[in-house]
Design goal:
Elements (H helix, E strand, L loop, with lengths): L2 E7 L2 E7 L28 H9 L9 H8 L10 H20 L3 E2 L3 E5 L1 E4 L10 H8 L5 E4 L3 H11 L4 E3 L2 E6 L9 E5 H15 L4 E4 L6 H12 L5 E2 L8 H10 L5 E5 L1 H8 L2 H7 L4 E4 L6 H9 L4 E7 L4 E5 L2 E2 L4 E5 L7 E6 L21 E11 L2 E7 L4 E3 L2 E3 L1 H8 L5 E11 L3 E10 L7 H12 L7 E4 L13 H8 L12
Parallel strand pairs: 5-6, 10-11, 10-12, 12-13, 13-14, 24-25
Antiparallel strand pairs: 1-2, 2-17, 3-4, 4-7, 8-9, 14-15, 15-16, 17-18, 18-19, 19-20, 21-22, 23-24
Helix pairs in contact: 3-6, 4-7, 6-7, 8-10
């Protein structure tokens, strides 16, 4: 694992991962990554907690934290499956050199163009028919934009990304973001950025291996499962999601997964279902790592997974960084984190840079998020504590209530501790007196009743009365955008005017 060099300069905090540096001390506390909780009072385990609990797995015959850490500090040796990753990178470089020597038709300011083609990626075993296209993508030989099965979404992406028109030939992938603005943007990746991501992931996890896909493949998290497996020289296994996520079918697929190291990736809602299945839990304890991302992992869910002996790794990243680039709050090799415009509490805008960062957005050459070469300025708010990144919320989702600012994710972390709450989302709703009022939307645990007053009292005790929800609304499920991300815009549209009965509110 890599160490971090941290410097505080005016309002900027930097966190950099450099290959070959020693691992950080084991007693540094972590909050959940992607999103990582900044407030220790919400019950997030520290890094020492994680290592202690994972270490118990050693006594059950599964490599625990200590065993994995030995892998993480070793140099990655040549030969074996990991060699395939470097061969892909070399192949992409040879491809670019060959194209320069051939002197193909050029357009504009000397740029080489080829056509951006759609790449349908169905959610199921049929996606294996597209592996040759994905291999061509990794080798730098084609340019694709993954599209879902839905014809309406295909039409939307075709117009937004200019599918069917020319694109610089070093851009091999244009993939939709899952941002909160409602307008999809296309992150442009090269063979080099994708290969860098695959290599950094393999190095951090202890070696390249075979992956099981249990996520939609047209989103970056699912696509990277396929690409990591191919880059390592393995054919990925695929779980059929046509009828939804079924834990027993997931267990069957994991048990059949073959490779020197075995990995898979889930979102928190899938993990919750898997933990209710003894077979799925048993299968997950046998993998080398379970990556969980897409949304914050509630502390109670995280504790439950660790106590079950599952080697869980919480990830933070996005389409613009080729997926996860910070694991358990620690940046992958080559990744640098800056906290920009930090306030007195150290919280500011998170900026990421590294070899896996996208080459801007398709058809949006002057987007301010990519104002600095090789960097990406996120809409996430966070801080660095003892060398660990903590994400506290999103700048574009903050609620302004009565002249004060409430970050929804901080309130959600408190509500998630309530034993009757399975899932929750906090949104701002227009209010004549306050401007916006804080409203909590919760999914109850099966057979349990949510106590609105208990939730309001808990938030008031921890964060202050201004942050407490004025209403608590119960629903059967939360709308999602992308894998595991709450669609707050759709949630507000579906509930106001109310479609559910709010519980008692604070006056």
């Amino acid at each position: 694992m890599a160490a971090r060099r941290i410097s505080q300069r005016r309002s900027r905090t930097r966190l950099r991962s450099t290959p070959g540096d020693p691992a950080p001390p084991a007693d540094r506390g972590r909050g959940p990554a992607g999103v990582v909780r900044a407030d220790r009072r919400v019950g997030s385990p520290t890094r020492a907690d994680l290592q202690d609990r994972r270490g118990r797995q050693d006594h059950r015959g599964h490599p625990g934290t200590a065993a994995r850490d030995r892998h993480l500090t070793r140099p990655h040796l040549s030969g074996g499956p990991g060699l395939a990753i470097r061969r892909f990178a070399a192949g992409a470089a040879r491809h670019r050199h060959h194209r320069r020597r051939r002197g193909p038709a050029r357009h504009g300011r000397g740029r080489v163009l080829r056509v951006l083609r759609p790449l349908p990626l169905p959610s199921g075993p049929a996606v294996l028919d597209r592996l040759d296209d994905l291999r061509a993508l990794l080798a730098g030989e084609a340019s694709f934009a993954p599209v879902p099965d839905d014809p309406r979404e295909q039409e939307l992406l075709t117009g937004a990304f200019g599918i069917g028109t020319g694109i610089d030939d070093d851009v091999v992938l244009v993939i939709a973001t899952s941002g909160s603005t409602g307008t999809p943007k296309g992150s442009q990746h090269t063979a080099a950025t994708l290969t860098a991501s695959a290599q950094a992931t393999a190095t951090h996890l202890g070696g390249a291996g075979a992956w099981l896909l249990a996520l939609p493949p047209h989103h970056i998290a699912g696509l990277q499962v396929l690409l990591r497996s191919l880059a390592a020289g393995f054919t990925p296994a695929v779980l059929d999601l046509a009828a939804g996520f079924h834990p027993d079918a997931f267990a069957d697929a994991l048990e059949a997964l073959d490779g020197p190291r075995r990995y898979t990736s889930l979102v928190p809602t899938q993990l919750r279902k898997a933990l209710d299945s003894p077979r799925a839990v048993a299968a997950l304890t046998g993998v080398d790592a379970l990556l969980v991302g897409g949304a914050a992992t509630p502390p109670a869910l995280l504790h439950k997974a660790i106590d079950a002996g599952i080697p869980i790794v919480r990830t933070y990243g996005m389409s613009e960084t080729a997926g996860g680039c910070v694991y358990d709050g620690i940046p992958l090799d080559g990744v640098q984190i800056e906290i920009v415009d930090a306030g007195p509490d150290g919280v500011g805008r998170v900026s990421l840079s590294g070899p896996m960062v996208a080459q801007g957005y398709r058809l949006l050459p002057d987007h301010p998020a990519f104002a600095h070469a090789g960097g990406f300025r996120t809409d996430d708010l966070g801080r660095v504590v003892d060398g660990v990144l903590q994400i506290t919320g999103r700048a574009d989702e903050a609620i302004s209530t009565g002249g004060l600012t409430v970050v929804p994710q901080v309130v959600e972390a408190v509500i998630a501790d309530d034993p009757a709450v399975a899932e929750c989302a906090v949104v701002g709703v227009a209010d004549e007196r306050l401007g916006e009022k804080v409203v909590a939307v919760v999914v109850p645990e099966p057979g349990m009743t949510v106590d609105a007053h208990r939730i309001q009292d808990a938030v008031t005790d921890r964060l202050g009365r201004y942050a407490a929800p004025r209403e608590v609304v119960t629903v059967a499920a939360l709308p999602l955008r992308g894998p595991g991300k709450i669609d707050r815009r759709a949630l507000r549209a579906s509930l106001w005017p109310p479609a559910s009965s709010p519980a008692t509110g604070i006056g």
